[in-house]
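Provenance and format

Records in this collection were gathered into a single text stream. Each protein contributes a sequence line and a token line. The two records reproduced below are adjacent in the stream.
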Amino acid sequence: MILPITAYGMPVLKKVAKDIEEGSIDLQALVDNMFETMYKASGVGLAGPQVNENLRIFVIDGDPMSEEDPKCAGFKKVFINAEIIEETGEEWGVEEGCLSIPGIRETVYRPEKILIRYRDENWVEHEEEYDGWRARIIQHEYDHIEGILFTDHLSPLKKRLLKKKLTNISKGNIGIDYRMKFLK
């Protein structure tokens, strides 16, 4: 089932998401719905808060980024109760966008490598290192479960310049081709 994506301005996007207890939700249905929603919106990642679920879960399919980074080919994963343990390496700037903030893309600087601990959809615990685009996608989605948006990484001047666009998004004054839920 395709879920509406929560738009900039919705309170759930600014909250630290809650851990998922094993067996507490229909996890497979949520995972399936999140992937379906992400694909419909042409995204490479989607976090629980973006579908109005205040839960520490995000899904990723980095395949569309495989031309930029061959390691992204077949990189499809579910991250539950994730915790970034370490971020290392040089910070590199990449223009990021977000399904919850359509039509805005800005350069965000992030460390090039991460070490992350998480559970997969089968509740198996993993601790893995990622770099390049895979790390970038994970960091962006991880920010969502921490109540952080990519716009929070921008300078105060850049935020002021984007204020009107962000206000329009929060009010639903945008043209998009996927379902969204707006602040009323």
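Adjacent record:
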Amino acid sequence: MKKILSGLAFATAITAATLAHAADVKPTVILVHGAFADSSSWNGVVKILEKDGYPVIAAANPLRGVTSDAQSVASIVKNIKTPVVLVGHSYGGPVISEAAYGNSNVKSLVFVAAFAPEAGETAAELSGRFPGGTLASALAAPVDLADGGKDLYIQQDKFHEQFAADVSEADARLMAAGQRPVTVAALNEAATTPAWKTVPSWFVYGDKDKNIPPQALAFMAERAHSKQTVVVKGGSHVVMVSNPKAVAELIEKAAK
């Protein structure tokens, strides 16, 4: 009898230790950049998250098309053994929403100055639905691709004012030179099944965003029943670069 009781006590201790360890495991944060940016746009956020003990992956977003880009991100998600917080900037919003669908380890979504389209909506249509966006006038002539598609860039001399007005001029010049193009097709590809309808979502954006009108961002946050929406006063489209602390704090709330 004593052996049975001691065995039960041992098993209980093991179970308690396992549960305690599981509670200590932090979700993995996957950061997905948007158009005209790259993974380095998350550097300030990554430093804070890693300091606070979160595993972080700043994924390379191909910027070729919503479905194919989402598949690329989903392949990363499927190989993560912990819960995942998916974070998307700008065009990265539709990508994380598509990538999360059907992946049960995604516990939350964070939209950083990002689109959260309904099925059938496109990034281009949403940005034009509300006044205030000036991206079209800042774009360079489309670059023809071998497959018949077209790539879009922001004119380098307009990049600072259009994309990153609250970032230093020197940093904005570096960002402009290293910007990643997005295809015209990607911005006009309709979303299919948005995960924000079933996965808890958080939103953060700047009230001086010129790429996606703040009215559009507010509309999408309200429609998605955002758990918390943070509006950064004076924030540009790249709030994760200019205000990494505010963005990281919201991500950590989504990770709880």
